[in-house]
Specification:
By secondary structure, the chain is of the alpha/beta class. Helix content is 47%, strand content 15%. The structure holds adenosine-5'-diphosphate (ADP) and adenosine monophosphate. The site of adenosine-5'-diphosphate (ADP) has 19 residues, from helix 1, strand 6 and helix 9.
Length: 217
Amino acid sequence: MRLVLVGPPGAGKGTQAEFIAAHLAVPKISTGDIFRANVASGTPLGQQAKRYMDAGQLVPDEVTIDMVRDRLAEADAADGFLLDGFPRTVPQATALDKLLADLGTGLDVVLELVVEDDEVIRRLSGRRTCRGCGKVWHVEFDPPNVEELCDRCGGELFQRDDDKPDTIAERLRVYGRDTAPLNQYYGAQGKLVGIDATGPVEDVTERAIDGLRSYGG
Ligand code: ADP
Ligand code: AMP
């Protein structure tokens, strides 16, 4: 299955992507994770991306599309994938459609996680990420057993620079301007499935998996 997860920053895409990708037995491809890994290891791509990420802006389309093209060419993505955080603009969506059409395939479904802005702000403000394995926690909604340490790998938790209040506001503005139009784009293709992403994580996963059933998931 070829699937895209959309929704505002903090909607729970990364959290749900883990479970949905495992359920579908496809790789989870998160452009935010790939950019952060490049920033951490100081590659030219990371250096280029960092200034946009720190400002709450989107990395330019050409850079992001090239990166995704390379990632989708890897063997594990040949029979399916779950994209988390890409596309984020209409030009990225058209590039993805073209890329897949050239391979003789296309997206099966686009799952939109629907959450109100005030809940998104609570989720982003309390998000903590593990430096070791990348698992995402929340200080209030999903706290680890030992404060600031990851239950899964024992790694140290940190707050992402772009989860500070000023950057959150900018990211939500950019989402409304550049990313929300994807809902019309994919709606017009008849591929958009909206899921209520409020409530416990397991309930959202269940709704998502239910929503995928009629698309072969
Ligand atoms: P995104 O990938 O869309 O930016 P994340 O998956 O990183 O979002 O989730 C943002 C924050 O919200 C994280 O701290 C996560 O633990 C928390 N979170 C995710 N799903 C839920 C939920 N259903 N209820 C409460 N908090 C959640
Ligand atoms: P995320 O982890 O999905 O919240 O992404 C973190 C940051 O990485 C974003 O705020 C952008 O700066 C950058 N980014 C991730 N995915 C994309 C994308 N598809 N297009 C442009 N920038 C992106």
